[in-house]
Known about the structure:
Elements: E1 7-10, E2 13-16, H1 22-30, E3 38-42, H2 48-59, H3 65-69, H4 72-75, H5 84-87, E4 96-99, H6 108-112, E5 116-121, H7 124-137, H8 147-155, H9 164-170, E6 180-184, H10 185-190, H11 192-203, H12 209-218, H13 221-226, H14 262-276
Parallel strand pairs: 3-4, 3-5, 5-6
Antiparallel strand pairs: 1-2
Helix pairs in contact: 2-12
Bound molecules: adenosine-3'-5'-diphosphate (A3P).
Adenosine-3'-5'-diphosphate (A3P) binds near residues 42, 47, 126, 189 and 221.
Amino acid sequence: MADSDLYLVYHGLPLPKVAHSEESLKYFQNFQVKDDDVFAVTFPKSGTTWMQEILPPLLNGGDLTSVETIPNWDRAPWLEETRASVVLDKLPSPRAIVSHMQYNLMPSSFFKSKAKVIYVARNPKDVLVSLYHFHKMAKFLEDPGTFEEFSDKFLSGKVMFGKWTDHVKSWRNPELGDRILYITYEEMLQDLREVLGRILKFLGRELSAEALDRVVNHGTFKNMKTNKMSNYSLVPEDIMDSKKSPFLRKGIAGDWKNHFSPELDAKFTAIIQEDMKGCNIRFPWDE
Ligand code: A3P
């Protein structure tokens, strides 16, 4: 099981103690979701920071001030993390909120609300690669060991927020109806403007072409890497050592090909397919 010095275990899911506490989870459970809150939900390393960059300006008419002046964790906070209770009650509505929680663990007010959800999925092979490098730079996580060892941990859900497959499946609940929009990291990479157009339509909002261009431009990997409000350079080196691996590392699809042996690829694919059996979810990377 998870190292108890580094993780607290919440409904079986290991959550890093650096950002989660009994108090933060109490706040999470009792949180009053508003109908106009907009959630970006992800398994870690699937594009959360990217959503924190593009969602606030989409909700405020294209104004980039918050993205240029407020760190990502305060401008679109994680509902389950310790910063939430400090910043969320002061955020103007409509609020952009992020979460790594599985659907069934969301606070009870979420289920009664009309709050919308954008679920971002990423090829789990690239999620694994990204998380592996994150473990090397984040001092609050254990050393990942070899890539093969770490892939076993990932597949058995002994990493933060548990199993990727459980997360993805939980958020396919039909109860969500048209409250949820499913997008992928790969689609964002391919054509961010098109995806932002879909998000705007889903949220019932409009932006001028010029404002949309600004948000797209701001959300490129190159520009986010130099935005100190988004590139984690504000985090002290004894917490995240970006010399070991920058938080905004490569920002590409398919880096898994540089990490997986053919044997690991076959094993990983078989285990994910087995876990996803019978749930009728097709992702672009399955084709
Ligand atoms: P890599 O480690 O593969 O580079 P999260 O924010 O959920 O922790 O996800 C982090 C991953 O998203 C990292 O992946 C990071 O580089 C990538 N990412 C963040 N912003 C991005 C952007 N604008 N374009 C492409 N990838 C981005």
